[in-house]
What we know:
By secondary structure, the chain is an all-alpha fold.
Amino acid sequence: MAMVGGILAALIIGKNDPGFIHNGPLAGLVAVCAGSDVFHPLGALVTGLVAGGIFVWLFVWYSTQKN
């Protein structure tokens, strides 16, 4: 469910960018992996949504920063 949340967040926030669609699920899975045995499926979905959204937002923010 965290992977699904990451995909949905990357689709919505990342505006269908293939790079975000491939890395959003990874962000969701990384965020949920430590507590995967205690997460409720809806909690894992929300965690994946948040992690995927944070990934896309930070990637865009970091790539627009000047050195």
